[in-house]
Specification:
Blueprint (H helix, E strand, L loop, with lengths): L13 H11 L7 E5 L7 H8 L4 E6 L2 H11 L6 E5 L12 E6 L10 H9 L2 E12 L5 H13 L3 H12 L4 H10 L3 E12 L5 H4 L2 H5 L1 H6 L5 H13 L7 E11 L6
The structure holds S-adenosylmethionine.
C-alpha cells in the first residue's frame, strides 16, 4: 500500500524512524488505528491517507500544544483523523479497541514501568491486531557516552559518572523490547534495528544541534550538580567531536500481534 502523503524528507529523525515503523506495519483500507506519542502527526497523516475514509486514526499526545499543532497542520484534511490529548500510559478504559496501534519515537517514554505501560496499551488492540512502536535503542550514540565517560573518569568526577551509568543502564535494548512484547502475550514478535548516522560539526554546532540538544545532551548536563562545570565539560567534549564520530543512532522497531480469539 502506498500513501499519497509523503513523510517529510527534511526531517532527519522522525522520518527515518517512521520508515522503520512502516516496514513492519501491515495496514489495510478501513482499518482503525491508535497512534500514540503522535506529536505533529508523523506518521498519523500517512496512516490516515492509507486507511482512507472508511477507516479512522486517533492520534494522541500528552502535550496539548502538540495536539494543537497536529490539528493546525490537518486543517480540513482527512476528517477521519482526530488529534486528542491523552497519556498513552494511562488511557481511559472506555476507549474502543483498534486494529492497529502505532507509536513513532514513543517507547522511550514508557519508563519507568515499561512492561506495565506496554501491557496497559496493548489491551486496546482488537484480537488479531498489531502494535508497532519505534525508539532509539541501547547502542544509540555509544561513541558519545564512551567519550563522556572517559572524560569524567580522567577528571575523577565520580558522582557525575555514577549518574551517567544509572542513566545508561535505564535505556532499553532491542532484546528487552522483544522480551516485553512476548511478556504481554503478543505473537509473531519482530524487533529490528537499523543504524542512522547523525551529522554535526564540532563546538557550538554540536552543542546546539536541534536533535542532540533537546534530549541526549540534556541527559549529560543533568548528571552534573554544578551547571558551570557541566558547561565547561561539554565545551571540551564538543571540541573533540572527531574522536567520537560517526554519531550513530539505532532505530529500533518492535512489532507484535494480539492472539485471535480461539487461536
Ligand atoms: C519524539 S516525539 C515523536 C512525535 C511523532 N510521533 C514523530 O515521530 O515526530 C515524542 C512525543 O511523545 C509525546 N509523549 C511523551 N510522553 C507521552 C505520553 N505519556 N503519552 C502521550 N504522548 C507522550 C511527546 O509530547 C512528543 O510529542
Amino acid at each position: 500500500m502506498n500513501s499519497h502523503w509523503a513523510l517529510p524528507e527534511s526531517d532527519y529523525w522522525s522520518t527515518p524512524f517512521a520508515q522503520a515503523l512502516l516496514h513492519h506495519l501491515d495496514l489495510f483500507p478501513g482499518a482503525t488505528v491508535l497512534d500514540v506519542a503522535a506529536g505533529g502527526g508523523i506518521p498519523a497523516f500517512y496512516l490516515a491517507d492509507l486507511v482512507g475514509e472508511k477507516g479512522a486514526v486517533l492520534a494522541i499526545d500528552i502535550h496539548p500544544q502538540r495536539v494543537s499543532r497536529g490539528r493546525t497542520l490537518q486543517g480540513e484534511r482527512f476528517p477521519w483523523l482526530t488529534f486528542e490529548a491523552g497519556d498513552m500510559k494511562n488511557l481511559p478504559d472506555d476507549l474502543p479497541r483498534f486494529d492497529r496501534i502505532t507509536g513513532n519515537l514513543s517507547f522511550m517514554f514508557f519508563r519507568p514501568h515499561r512492561l506495565q505501560a506496554l501491557k496497559s496499551l496493548t489491551r486496546f488492540l482488537k484480537p488479531g491486531g498489531q502494535i508497532v512502536l519505534t525508539f532509539p535503542s541501547l547502542g544509540t550514540f555509544d561513541s558519545l557516552w564512551e567519550r563522556v565517560e572517559s572524560e569524567m573518569k580522567a577528571r575523577q568526577l565520580d558522582e557525575e559518572r555514577t549518574a551517567l551509568q544509572e542513566y545508561l543502564e535505564e535505556r532499553p535494548s532491542a532484546e528487552q523490547a522483544r522480551h516485553w512484547l512476548e511478556e504481554c502475550g503478543l505473537q509473531k514478535v519482530e524487533v529490528t534495528e537499523w543504524p542512522l548516522e547523525i551529522a554535526s560539526g564540532p563546538g557550538r554546532e554540536f552543542l546546539e544541534h536541534p536533535l542532540l540538544r533537546g534530549g541526549f545532551l540534556d541527559d549529560i548536563y543533568e548528571c552534573f550538580k554544578d551547571p558551570a562545570l557541566a558547561s565547561e565539560f561539554m565545551n571540551t567534549i564538543s571540541r573533540d567531536l572527531q574522536s567520537f564520530q560517526p554519531l550513530v543512532a539505532q532505530r529500533c522497531a518492535m512489532s507484535g500481534w494480539s492472539p485471535r480469539i480461539g487461536a
